[in-house]
Specification:
The protein has 464 residues and is of the alpha/beta class. Helices cover 30% and strands 24% of the residues. Bound molecules: flavin-adenine dinucleotide and nicotinamide-adenine-dinucleotide.
């Protein structure tokens, strides 16, 4: 039974822990799937590469407002797909090769199998190629095993067949019609991608709005704009999935009674669940929340001394920048057990790369109300800044929440062009405690650039 100083389970953000600082440690890394994890292979990176192509494909649909008439002639899906994975797959393969065979990693054993705890700090690894299982023990473990898509309990779904974000990007050809179950991040991003490529999209949401966890005004605006581009069915329960002569059908129950949506394929985008169950973390004494996320303290350590966890396995944020931050914290804490640092989860931002883009950090207005926090709000439309005139934008806005007395920003929510970049100075201000007045007037804002949206929103805040 090989014994290690450190075993890491999962090669998403877990893979970035090992470096030259660990040269004297006997280490192992265990990966059951593709090296590099979700973000690289089936998450952030390929989706954003598809979204970029989708953004390009939609320009003819709005170019005439600038006096330029364009036409979308064709979308060459196999080429788009192969360009994207032709870049990503070699990176994943190169990462595996580096860990397995490079001189830098002579202290690292790579196990390409599935790990499952069988006792305190004892991990059994099973291999799909029929090799006998191996049992590893270690002084320290890092659990970075991520999550997987949740499949809702819809009668007939298994027999009918469905895609998830793990498979839909590798389709042989574009479907004519797609129905997406779910109204969150993945639904919003893929609805944009497929609608832009000319696919008839239907989104089925069980609540009354898309992107429901965004600020209420952002969610309402996004829902309205999405419904102009594709078929949005809200407040719907999916009662059955079935095959039809031409494809698939979902039977729905909604405010107007029973209805059916037909499509060529189903994409399930109803959230993700942590892999703590399949890793059987309980067998090593590690505890989980009701959501299945592993419980960690501020240092990212689980309840078991020497067992750390990070990323989607333990973080309800389920975002790559959070997983990366936590892996840096874990790396430091492994190397400096007497000077451990805490992870910083104060102002975790996110962006939804759909159309229009959505980005957010801090409290939404509904959360501020629910928490009884005292706040003031300001809103600035893209239509009110010079760059917004250039873009002829009529629907985007930034919304800020601030403490009326101190001017400290409490939340920022943007829907509109480049929201994911425009929000960054607000994340910086919140992280470093810069108040709204100082931020607005303590620096130049390039004229007439998009961040004037933020300058104006800051100046509009009705502070005491
Ligand atoms: C479609 C999609 C788009 C996304 N887009 C974004 C985005 O734009 N921005 C953003 O911030 N986040 C995005 N995310 C979320 C982001 O991908 C995750 O937050 C991030 O990848 C989590 O990293 P991780 O290291 O915790 O887990 P993962 O990257 O999931 O790595 C876990 C690894 O562990 C392996 N593993 C699991 N169980 C075992 C086991 N028992 N034994 C051995 N190996 C195991 C898995 O095979 C996997 O390789 C997206 C996610 C999806 C699905
Ligand atoms: N841009 C990004 O950062 C990005 C992009 C994609 C995914 N992600 C990460 O991946 C996670 C998973 O994405 P997601 O979109 O699957 O989850 P999500 O939590 O964003 O959305 C899930 C949606 O499915 C709905 N839903 C749940 N069960 C349902 C059911 N039975 N029938 C109909 N609807 C149902 C929910 O109401 C919600 O609207 C996200 O939480 C996010 O952290 C991030």
């Amino acid at each position: 039974m090989p014994h290690y100083d450190l075993v890491i389970v999962g090669t998403g953000s877990g893979n970035s822990i090992l470096g030259p600082q660990f040269a004297d440690w006997k280490t192992a890394i265990v990966e059951k799937g593709t090296f590099g994890g979700t973000c690289l292979n089936v998450g952030c990176i390929p989706t954003k590469m598809f979204v970029y192509a989708a953004d390009v494909a939609t320009t003819p649909s709005h170019s005439s407002r600038y006096g330029v008439d364009e036409e979308l002639k064709a979308v060459r899906w196999p080429e788009i797909r192969d360009r994207i994975f032709g870049r990503i797959d070699p990176i994943a393969a190169g990462g595996a090769e580096y860990r397995k065979h490079h001189e830098d990693n002579k202290n690292v054993d790579v196990y390409t199998g599935e790990g499952r705890f069988t006792g305190m700090k004892e991990l059994r690894v099973s291999f799909s190629d029929g090799r006998p299982d191996e049992v590893l023990t270690a002084d320290r473990f890092v659990l970075a095993a991520g999550g997987r898509p949740v499949i809702p309990d819809v009668p007939g779904l298994e027999e009918t067949g469905y895609h998830t974000s793990d498979t839909v990007m590798r389709l042989d050809e574009l479907p004519r019609r797609i129905v997406i179950i779910g109204g969150g991040y993945i639904a919003a991003e893929f609805a944009h991608v497929f609608a832009s490529f000319g696919v008839e999209v239907t989104v089925v949401g069980r609540s009354g709005a898309l992107l429901r966890s965004e600020d209420e005004e952002v969610s309402a605006r996004f829902t309205e704009l999405a419904a102009e581009r594709y078929d949005v069915r809200l407040d719907r329960k999916t009662t059955r999935a079935r095959k039809t002569a031409s494809g698939v059908a979902l039977d729905l129950e909604g405010p107007q009674g029973a209805e059916t949506v037909e499509a060529d394929l189903i994409l399930v985008a109803t959230g993700r669940t942590p892999n703590s169950d399949r890793l059987d973390v309980a067998a090593t004494g590690v505890t989980t929340m009701d959501s299945g996320h592993v419980v960690v303290d501020g240092y990212q350590q689980t309840v078991v001394d020497g067992i750390y966890a990070l990323g989607d396995l333990s973080s309800p944020h389920e975002l790559k920048h959070v997983a990366n931050h936590e892996s840096r914290v874990v790396q430091h804490n492994l190397l400096h057990p007497d000077e451990r640092i805490e992870a910083d989860h104060r102002f975790v931002p996110h962006a939804v790369f759909t159309a229009p883009q959505v980005a957010s950090v801090g409290l939404t207005e509904q959360k501020a109300r629910a928490k009884g926090v005292s706040y003031v709000v300001s809103k600035q439309d893209y239509a009110g800044i010079a760059y917004g005139w250039a873009m002829e934008d009529t629907t985007g806005f930034a919304k800020l929440l601030a403490d009326p007395a101190t001017g400290q920003l409490l939340g920022a929510h943007i829907i509109g062009p480049q929201a994911s970049s425009v929000i960054q100075p607000l994340i910086q201000a919140m992280s470093f405690g810069l108040d709204a007045r100082s931020m607005a007037r303590g620096q130049y804002w390039i004229h007439p650039a998009m961040p004037e949206l933020i300058e104006n929103a800051l100046l509009n805040l009705p502070l005491d």
